Amino acid sequence: MNTEDMIKSVYRCPSLPRAMRRWSLIHVMAFCMFASSVFAILSHQGLGRIMRTMQLQQVDPGLADAKYAPTWESLDSRPLPAWYDGAKVGIFIHWGVFSVPSFGSEWFWKYWHDDRKKYVEFMEKNYRPGFTYADFAASFTAEFYDPEEWASVFNASGARYVVLTSKHHEGFTLWPSRYSWNWNSLDVGPKRDLVGELAQAIRDKTPHIHFGLYHSMYEWFHTMYLEDKARGFQTQDFVRAKTLPELYELVNTYKPEIIWSDGDWEAPDSYWNSTHFLAWLFNESPVKDRVVVNDRWGKGVVCNHGSYHTCTDRYNPGSLQSHKWENCMTLDKVSWGFRREAPLRDYLTIQEVLSTLTETISCGGNLLVNIGPTHDGHLPAIMEERLRQLGSWLDINGQAVYESVPWKHQNDALTSSVWYTSKGDEVYAIVLQWPEDGAVILGSVQPTSHTKVYMLGHVDRMRPLQFTTTEKGHLTVMMPLMHQLKGQWAWVLVLSEVKAV
Length: 501
Prior knowledge:
alpha/beta
């Protein structure tokens, strides 16, 4: 009997109540994970990694002369790699064992364990008695997973970076981690290195797209984490044996240019040894010169430290921020993972996506658009459609997006459906709603004697649009006829030689 069969036999015991069977899963899986960590330590390569992790608990002597010390003050002094600010648009991918039940949320296991009514009823109605969360893993098959096709869709979306969930809070790794024995995509389910295949496809087929990885620092039901938590995070057994070894493994193996950390909020950064890992990442790692990280590295760190801030999910402040930030949001308004029960009304329209993009970049942020593939590796048609629609709009209007910077005003003072970006001497007015009378009044713009106005996507790109000046000096632009335009949904005016009101 192999380990997976042994685990399942525990959960199927009819004499155990449902709650106890679920806790049996937690304990057995945790034991397997702990055993894998021990075996890794006993191997020469694993020992080297663990020793490095243990050394980083203190100020590593090797970091004494490094450019960045393991303090937030020092780490925050590192300049943001220019590629990230210029990229503007990324794709987030939430994929894991939760994609098998594909019901309610990617937090399915946690909510079911906590006896939330709709999750308990879903399981009782659709699955046999004694079914456990681990049983879902065998059905995480990924038979339709074609990383080159994914790369093609991402390229068509106009995205400049991709962030794949390498491990969510359930602990299942999408790569053959030596620290997640028998709970990873090579040992169970797909029997493939899902992370490695996508990294290779992105770099081979779309080299202009930067590859990044999401990683959850904690795991809901890992015994070592729960024990550390019970001790008030005064011990770090889970960090030493699981979190940090996984992070080193991911960076050294796949060389991601983004590390999107999460699952940090219950414990301080000192528990996670975050600053020591980041000092290694910025000073010594194979991606030290180009990697960027978010702000989720411990309780109290979010929105205060990191290459860029995420602050909260779907963060969209609507005003210019002093630090680079990112709006990570979902096409499905409810869930990050795929939901089979989601109605059409729960998906953003392309107009809503473009509105969010425009508001975000006008205020200096990047937009990370999340999708959730199915358990078999298929990109849901409605998500693919939204990505391709986004890309078709960017093909015409990307000049106002990529490498742009915020202007002196973000949102127009009179016409609320207009937002601004700029590049060099040009100002871009992104019009989200077509004016009923065919004229747009720009209350934040004052023309000069040399002002010219063009529209991206106009069939005669070099023909200036007509404009007038109101009594108060505001610019009023006459929009072209619709049949003269290549694009739809939102329109970009290119303004030259103008002043901010």
